[in-house]
Amino acid sequence: MTALEFNYQLTGLRDNLERFALSLTQNMEDAKDLMQETYLKALAYRNKFADNTNLKAWTFTIMKNTFINNYRRAVKSNTTFDNTDDLYFLNINKESPMETPESAYATSEIEKAINALEDEFRIPFLMHVEGYKYKEIAEKLNLKIGTVKSRIFFTRKKLMEALKDYSN
Length: 168
Fold this sequence. Notes:
mainly alpha, Rna Polymerase Sigma Factor, Chain: A, Arc Repressor Mutant, subunit A, 2 domains, 8 helices, elongated
């Protein structure tokens, strides 16, 4: 594929990329930044793209990985050091207000809903919430990765249904 064909096909993905970026960031300005970064990486690594493969999937993977890396970088930048001799890590969001009675109650209701789930759904979901990747969960629980993904998906659906009074 020539550079011109590659660029033409890449720009043809604009609407799809914009929707995907918006679904990841939930903010139009951040989505535009993510799209720009994705285009830049796709053009920079054009030589890594194998001809006769799926350009859309390749570009979406670049976008997803860029989003994840940016998110991890943002979380890491919020980690500060305590200046004591022990140098404890503090992961406190300085912008979060004190816990209100309403939020404490909502948190307890969410925890009850999660704890009411069957183990086969609850355990993979909690591992995912704790930051494990699908592959890691699959390996630890000796499950197929598709099974892990579907259980987490169905757990989300169950929790949304059980907690629909808390949705905005």
